[in-house]
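Archive entry: two folds, one per protein. Generate the first.
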Amino acid sequence: MRQITYSEAIREAMCEEMRRDASVFLMGEDVGVFGGVWGVSAGMLQEFGEERVRDTAISEIAIVGMGLGAALCGMRPIVEIMFADFLMCAGDQIVNQVAKARYMSGGKADVPLVIRVATGAPGSAAAQHSQSAESWFMNIPGLKIAVPATPADAKGLLKTALRGKDPVLFFEHKMLYAVRGEVPQDEDFIVPFGKANLHRHGDDLTIIAIGAMLLKALQAAEQLAQEGIQAEVIDPRTLVPLDSQTIIESVAKTGRVMIVHEAHRRAGPGAEIAAVIAEQAIEYLDAPILRVAAKNVPLPYSPTLEQVVLPSTEDILTAAHQLLKGVKNHAAV
């Protein structure tokens, strides 16, 4: 184990897989000479050359379309989309082509395409550069969706994606790129899709935290512990497939659950997870399912207004106290 940043973990995963498999290559806007707008692909052009680290035109629909074509022809392309908001520019390719190609070929065509997406609010980037788009694509069969929250998961999930046969939307939160964490040096280290990570054990309530919200959920759990409240914190890691078993087992133990994500509250990923819990674990619930998420307004440019719209550690604490209202033996009540 050694400490590296989230962005270094992603770059390391790409480089290791490109060295291991000549069919893996990277393309996107400014990924080569500039090293990526977020610096993730810095130095890769020098190692792999212009054939395998390709700067593209500013056209998301063309980038994804080329990625699909390359995948169908036996390559393993990594496509970088600079902002999650711009996924809509490639909407037809992703929704009607990438997601459906394997199905419409009767399973004869593999689509090993990984679309890396910078998601979330980086701070005062305003309404067109700050959105969390994960739930937009949860309704589209044929796509896998990964939302890593730690450097280790970023590396392990990306390597799993690059070795698979299906298209993957790989969401990287902009505010996580500089976060450091322990990552194994093993070049065959992978993290399976559909297996949640239980970060903290607890008996009083379950917090399901998606992406960058994991850090705030763990901060809230530490503060709750000082009040005598033990929160269990789960990171799903992948939204499609979703590890419903780990979630249900936790809810059965605690009887109380909140889902925390940066995407807007209405029809966000928490809505689907809440539906799964309602269908499979409603008999265990001692309180309503709560969602802590961004308010249903466009993301503001103003830093002060942005803080009001985005979910905070304080919002998680408030929801926890609401869930435990009326429960005896808790100092917070």
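Generate the second and append.
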Amino acid sequence: MRGAFLKDADLKPHLSRYWLNAKYDDPETFKQQVAGVCDVYAMAPTAHQQGTHVVSTDEMTGIQALERTRPTLPMEPGKPERREFEYERHGTQTLIANFDVVTGEVITPTVGQTRTEEDFAEHIKRTVKIDPQAKWVFVMDQLNTHKSEALVRLVAEQCVLKDDLGIKGKSGVLQSMETRETFLRDATHRIRFVYTPKHASWLNQVEICFSILVRKLLRRASFKSKDELRERILAFIDYFNRTMAKPFKWTYAGRPLRC
């Protein structure tokens, strides 16, 4: 009886998913921030025609190089694939990636040991280098490394800005996280950053690519070393770009993305 009731009501009490609610002090400000990100996505095709790159950027940290102690047995008629439960750990890697909102490709991925502010600034520098005279708009979350001194100095260098940046923690653009963010958001710069509200990662389109990477590669794979993990991540991204890449259709109706 209970089972029939649950089936009719389309309820599944045996299933549960983690959910992170957005946190905001001012609902109106939150709405404006969400609208700002959505506006960037909406104008991306037009901007692309005018030579501006709009990309969604983030890090995927702690990717484990797990090696199964026994080979995986393939599926057979009446039997699912069987993976060894035990594994050996060979360390972790961090992926920093950009998702091109218009082309649907993942560009200039970086796979390495750490994700320091210098690592992130270097990643942005590598990305801009593929079209050094173009305008770039990066959509990302509000992690402290996304508002760092290294990133401010990179933008000032790339945009040939001669103004004194001040001293971190004391004065000028570098004084605080807030002053650095204001500088990095500046729409008059050739390279600028648009930040999603806190705890609103669903606004960042590159997160969908990370989900695809987990489902298609990481969840079932076995890696003998960090080098093998890095090589296979990069190989998968190349495969993704050649065979699967397409822009996401942006909507805002509870679930923000539909393919």
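Annotation attached to the second fold: Helices lie at 2-8, 27-49, 117-129, 149-158, 177-185, 206-218, 226-243. The domain at 31-60+93-246 is CATH 3.30.420.10 (Nucleotidyltransferase; domain 5).
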